[in-house]
Amino acid sequence: MPASNLQQVWPEMNPEDMSPEQMALAALRHEIDLVDDEILALFQRRLAIAAKVGQAKDAPHGPHTKLRPDREQTVLSRVMAKADPENAVAVEGLWREIVGWGLARQGQLQVQVWAPVDPTRAFDGARHRFGTAAAIRMVRDPQAALAFAAEGKGVAVLAVNTEDPWWVGLRRDWSSLSVFDGFGAAGGQPTSLAVGKIDPAALPKGRRVVVSAGGDAGDGGGARRWGLNTHHGWTLALTDADLTPGDAEGCVGAIG
């Protein structure tokens, strides 16, 4: 390894005074520096492309947020399929940050979180999903958060493990909004839902979210339902039925 490279990674040492162990460590550090340079160049290139993508996006059915959950799902699934299993958690976290910063080049995402029960879990779920590039803040009024999302200013993350049935309004009052993600305990049912003015064609592939009258036992056609909450005869549930948002069966979105 050239002496100049040794001094770059270990400037306080004289190469002639280095032990074999220090020489080996310096070589590894130099290798990391080279990889960091490659990562930086590629990341900045990706950000530049993401900015162009933002300019090219065109929602076909009126104004929607620039979020494309289906595209994010595809990108993450492709990357995770290539990742070594022992690196899966690290890769997912890194890629969500990369996607979040790319989205920020199209305009910083504003996220309002309402969760009177276990607010830390809801906030952490939002931070993990949207990354540190997003502006996330806690709010006290779920209806105000829904209005914020309906205006296209950003998205709302709202708890469903509460006595406030804000989700009934997704059928009655907030038809322009769609559920596009859910957060909760690992491997469990979601305790909060992400809601936004999402192009229905851009919803992720996964379980549908339904708000309907009656219970959560399913429709008798073989499609299971998992109840999340109930209120005065209304039920919020997940289903594996392939439903279209806004249809008569009460589909209000999807969770990937």
From TrEMBL:
<dbReference type="Pfam" id="PF01817">
    <property type="entry name" value="CM_2"/>
</dbReference>
<dbReference type="InterPro" id="IPR002701">
    <property type="entry name" value="CM_II_prokaryot"/>
</dbReference>
<dbReference type="InterPro" id="IPR036263">
    <property type="entry name" value="Chorismate_II_sf"/>
</dbReference>
<feature type="domain" description="Chorismate mutase">
    <location>
        <begin position="19"/>
        <end position="110"/>
    </location>
</feature>
<dbReference type="InterPro" id="IPR036979">
    <property type="entry name" value="CM_dom_sf"/>
</dbReference>
<protein>
    <recommendedName>
        <fullName>chorismate mutase</fullName>
        <ecNumber>5.4.99.5</ecNumber>
    </recommendedName>
</protein>
